[in-house]
Amino acid sequence: MKTKTTKWMPIVWMILFAIGFLIVFGRVLYIQVTGEVQGVSLTELAEEKRTNYYTIPAKRGTIFDRNGMPLAEDKIVYRLYAVLDEGQTINPEKPRHIVDIDEAADKIAPIIGMEPSEMKRRMVEGKEEERFQVEFSNYGKELTQTQKEEIEALEIPGIYFEEEPVRFYPNGTFASRTIGLAQKNDEGKIVGINGMENYMDEYLTGQDGSISYQRDKYNFKLLNPNEVLNQADDGEQVYLTIDQKVQTLLEDSLSVIEEEYEPTKMSAVVMHAKTGEVLAMSNRPSYDPNNFGDVENWFNDVISNPVEQGSTFKIFTLAAAVNEGVWRGDEYFKSGSYKAGPKIKPISDHNGGRGWGSITYLEGFQRSSNVAVAKLAYEKLGSDKFLEYLQAFDLDKETGIDLPGEVPGRILFDNPIEQITTSFGQGTITTPIQIVKGSSAIANGGEMVKPYLIKKIVDSETGEVIEEKSREVVGQPITKESADQVLDIMESVITSEAGTGKVFGLNDYTVAGKTATAQIPNPETRGYKTGWGNYIYSFIGMAPAEDPQLIMYISVQQPDLDEETYEPGNVTTSFIFKNVMENSLKYLNIEPDKEEVKVENLKTVPDWKDKSTNNVVEAFKEMNINPIVIGDGERVVDVNVKPGEKITTAQKVLIVTNEPTMPNIIGWSLKDLLTLKDLIELDIEWIGSGFIHKQSIEPGTSIQSGSYLMAELQEPTNDTKKVNKDELEEQTE
């Protein structure tokens, strides 16, 4: 006899089944109508699963010097990886995975600088862990084209490369803090960290593109793939006012002093006096942005390190006195020490307060007398008027130069002693670029120009100039007549027997300038550091003196001077100034203005276009220049100097013939190597710094446009460095 429960169970199951069926049917109907599951579109999901999507990376814009020489650019390097998955091999005769781990490790590891045992260990572990592929940390990253080709020549299956862009700086330490540094962030995108790379990051950074297409399950593109292509928009090109040749002169000169005297810091800047264009800017210590390691100071001291300038500051005190009409160069005063009032601390001249007796104010300025300028500022000008002039020269403001990280100076002027010491550059702090900007008023007939580094911004695709900068007058603190008079007085600092700047005189050009030996504050004693060489030696110079075209500032802090021979600190600054200024003026074709200039010291480049090699070589030899002939061709194709250009006999002349062959470049500088690169359009890579000691193409080998050359550079020995210094000195004798 059936129970009541047994009787109702089939009915319950039928009802549950019906409910379940209705739920499933309703769900299917809903999905069919809406095409969604849990808010996810099935159509879009299917599209995504069968569509390949790739990013097309945008190229970061290149930074050039004023003449189109690349200073920072993207460079393609390669990342090495090894495929371990045997499933990638379809045809056993053409394997697509690592077959012999030992062979791969033994042959590839030496090329990438890795231990074979370590490379083998990584691949064995990857195999055991059933990984698809393995990489080799930093050893397998940023490989050069040469390394890639060398590995590919081994024909080892399962070895592959991935292209990667990195930021490359062709000139190494050249203007490193000015150009700046760009590196990959956590997202793998190259961004500017400092310097111009950071300042112009918005323009230099491009917009990535993309490409997508539909594929089958075997990853092959469909016949109708619905391909969508969005081209990448590369970053813009930025042209700086920096001149590669002037900058190289500056870098080479700083390197000589750095090696010989080991100063704690150096800063230097060269600016076009008329326009404000910065032609060169450098600091030491420096770093190579391609391989910078540990960097103690990332700041650009030319714009970011205000210091007590010392006597270079006196030119502004002088300018104020001249412009106010209180300067009387033939008036006498008592040198040695000066006490402006009963409650004011006395100040002394730099020779221990001995002074030079009763001398004229002109001689006082020539001898860099602190007493002379103190009396000019405090007695003749008055503190309030003196402060007005300091502010008119913008010595308490940023210059507004187009670089990040500028720090303004500070005028210390709260009490009488500070007002007095400011007159000779003590207490008040300013940056080198502020001194250069203020000096431009003296060089420009009273008009003060704004320093700038960006010449123009150019669209990378169309070549259209987006923005271009030009001369900007930002003040006129003194009149033209006053500026001309100050120039004459500053020139006498170089020409007078009493002048402190005699060693800064040039062979072929007149110079207006001012020397300085500034004390360095000692935080521990709240005074100044003492001891031989514990100073900042600096110089501000303009040339030609009558109508300055270039302004140059140099500072060298705490060089290792020879105390036994009382070696003067200006031996460092004068070497840098004379080498850079004289050669830069000649390079810029600025006519010498000294009456005693020997015409034979300057040679005019002959017309070499469409001439025979022998005739051109002979023409240079008649000028006492032995050119380097590149190749055995009978006809001259190019020369690194232009017809009609004025050069010295120290100029290295490269003559390219119609059948170029590789010259012996051992001992050449990087500057010479880059000149060769431009002449023949070689594909050049180099490692190291200093001078070339290895070249990948043997001398005499035929070369052509696009030929690949690898050069290894090494720092010279001490003996070599002394020779290089002598060579640099000869260029200005």
TrEMBL record:
Its EC number is 3.4.16.4. Keywords: Membrane, Transmembrane, Transmembrane helix. Residues 266-582 form the Penicillin-binding protein transpeptidase domain. The chain crosses the membrane at residues 12-30. SUPFAM superfamilies: beta-lactamase/transpeptidase-like (SSF56601), Penicillin binding protein dimerisation domain (SSF56519), Penicillin-binding protein 2x (pbp-2x), c-terminal domain (SSF54184). It catalyses: Preferential cleavage: (Ac)2-L-Lys-D-Ala-|-D-Ala. Also transpeptidation of peptidyl-alanyl moieties that are N-acyl substituents of D-alanine. The keyword Transmembrane helix applies. Its main location: membrane. Pathway: Cell wall biogenesis; peptidoglycan biosynthesis. It is found in: Membrane. It is an enzyme of class 3 (hydrolase). Belongs to the transpeptidase family. This is serine-type D-Ala-D-Ala carboxypeptidase. It comes from Gracilibacillus halotolerans.
